[in-house]
Structures are given as C-alpha cells and as structure tokens.
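Dataset card, provenance and construction

Sequences and ligand SMILES were collected as paired inputs. For each pair, a complete structure of the chain with the small molecule in place was predicted and serialized as structure tokens. The example below shows a pair involving calcium ion. Curators did not alter the output after generation; any descriptive sentences attached to a record were derived from the structure itself.
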Amino acid sequence: MDRWSGEVHLKRSLGFEDSNFTFSVKISDSANPPHEVTEVVAVQIVSDDSNQLSLDITPSELSVDETSATIGSLVGSIAVPVAGKNGSELFYFVDKNKEDDFPFYVNAATGDVFVTGPINATLKSSYDVEVTVGSDEIAPKSSRLVIKVTGNIGGSKPSFPTDPIVIRVPENSRIGTRILVLSPNDKSVKTIWPLKYQIVEQSPSDTTSFDINEKTGELKLVKSLDYEKVANHLLTVKVSSNDDSADFQYSTLLTVAVVVEDVNDFQPIFLSSDSAEISSDHPLNRPFFNVFVADEDSGDWSVVKYVIREGNVDGVFSIDEKSGELSLQKSPVVGRSSYQLTIRAEDGGQLFSEQILKINIRQDSSIAPKFVDRKMSLEVAENLPAISRIATLQVIA
Ligand SMILES: [Ca+2]
Ligand SMILES: [Ca+2]
C-alpha cells in the first residue's frame, strides 16, 4: 500500500485456492498529536473464468498397436498442464463403468496408462472413457480420453473346414453322442473371436435329431437315428460373433451333412408259408417251393443266405443258397408222408431266423396238372409296355 496515495497493489497473483483476506488500515493526519482512525478492509477473491485452470488432459488420444503391445505395456502418459502447479498433486481416475472390459489401467498419481487385458483391433479399435482429474485443492473435472487400438483389423476372421462338412454316423449311435465339434481352422482365432453356434435349419424339418452347444460348437445327437427312415440329415449352422458390442461383426452359415450309416438292426423275417406239398414223383432238381424272407436293412445286411439246418433225412432236399428255391435231390423215401426241415435264413451280418417247414409228400402220383415252377413272385421291370410277356407258367399235365 502506498502510504501517501492509499493505492493497494497485489504482491503476488491469487488463485482460486487462496482464501479471502482482511487487513486493517490505520489513517492518520499530521496534527500533533495526530488524529487516527482504523478501518478493516476485506478483500474478496472473485473467480475469473478467463484465467481459470484448465483440467483438460494432454494428450486426449493415445494409440496402442495390438501386434507389439502385451499385458503391462506402457501405452503413454496423460497429464494436465497446470501453470505454476506441481502436477504430482493431481489425480487421475477412470470411470470404467462407461466402458465394459476396459483393458487398460491409468495410474492415478502419474497418469501413466498400461495395457492390462487382451486387445484386438478387429474386435474393438477404440476405447472412449471419462478421466476425472482433480486434486485436494481443485474441484474434480471430467476429461475425455480416447485410446485407439491399431493392428491387423479384420485380418484374423475365423474360417471353417470345407462346406458342407460331411460326417458319417452309425444309425445305432446313442443319444448324447458327440458327433462333431465345429471349430475354426485356426484355433488361436477362437480366443479372439468369441463365437456363437446355432442350428438355424434341420432337414428333414420334422426330425430334430441334433443339438449344438452355443458356445463350444459341440454337435450332439438328441434323438435316435434310423437309416431305414432318414438316411441323410442336413443342418444349417449359423456361426456368429458372440459380442454384439464389438466393432467388427462376423456371421457365416455352415452346412453339415450327416450321413447315417446302416447298421444291421433287422433280422430276416420269413414271409413264405411254413408248409409245402410235393408229389412223390416230382422231377429231381426242379424247384417245387420257394422259401423267402424280408430284411429291411441295406447292402450286405440284407443279403440273405438259405440253408437247411435239420430234418433233411438222406439229403432228399436241397435249397438254393441265394434264391431259397427248394428242390428234390433224391426221390423221397417210399412210404414217408412228410418231412420237417429247419430252414435258416442268415443275413450278411450274421443275424438269422429259422423256420420249420413241413413238407407233405403226396403218394398218389395224381394226374392233376401242376406247375413246373412254383415261384411265388415274378419280377417285372417298370416302364414295360402293356402286353409285354413277363413270364410263362409251365404246367406238367
Ligand atoms: Ca439285416
Ligand atoms: Ca439298418
């Protein structure tokens, strides 16, 4: 204060953090003794926006390269340029609630930013967070920090084996059997890309025989297969990125063809009669009866072989192994009225059935006409024109 003019000057600059001042001023004149009066002067510090401290962090954007950064890598440092202030008094606080899975750590005292979790530019190329900056003396203020992740964007998309994926499954596979695990060719992609698997279509549509684990891609059997009913199943599987918030979305459709393999689950069933009749003078080596069976399997599992197991006294009868046609090898023993043959029909998978066939011998040498062949079935090719000859039935008079 100038003692003559009364001008009051600042000796140092004031900040927001300074408290208000009061001081007493004594005024006196030159009389002897002087007249005196003391007044209290209050100085109020008024905030001046143009001169307020800036709490914006610098830099406001950091960048990290996924190919070189590992957990613990320093991304960079943020700071607030505060004139005349010791920066170490400031603290930095990141509000992580605004950013799920924020794979970075900001040191509250130094402003150093480190990598603390997996980063992948393909999945997420930018993190945008609020950093709260303040100190014991400065009211906290939010500031925006953007961390960019650079690297191989989109370069590591999952790829899958050949489409369609064909798998062969035996029809007798148990429910719960794991028949396939869908997995990207490059296994390392799996951890970067959390994938979701869904069956979007099954054909035939009325059979929902399969179920897929949404996370693991494990395809399981949930209903019994039956080769005889449905030999081929087609599944359309949607594989997509599991994280809807990721920057880079991925989705593809895969076709899985399930080829059901036949299993020998049917034994031959006799369809022909269990009794036959033959004249005692029937010519030798001429079929007089046709044994036949049905086997609902396919291929070798349905190819049947016929044998006479028992009752063929003196080897009177023979059976054609393939056709099941019974013939006489020898004339029946004179006076014998019947034979009981045990016929076995065995398929290529060694399942079999047996039938006891009673053969009555007519001794009368009857004069009645009779068929030469007693075939029970005729084969007719489709598309044969009408009036085509399909067989000639021969009769012995
Ligand atoms: Ca069979
Ligand atoms: Ca079968």
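Derived descriptions for this record:
Residues 189-192 form the longest helix (4 residues).
The pocket of calcium ion (ligand 2) is lined by residues 171, 227-228, 262-263, 265-266, 297, 301 (CB under 6 Å).
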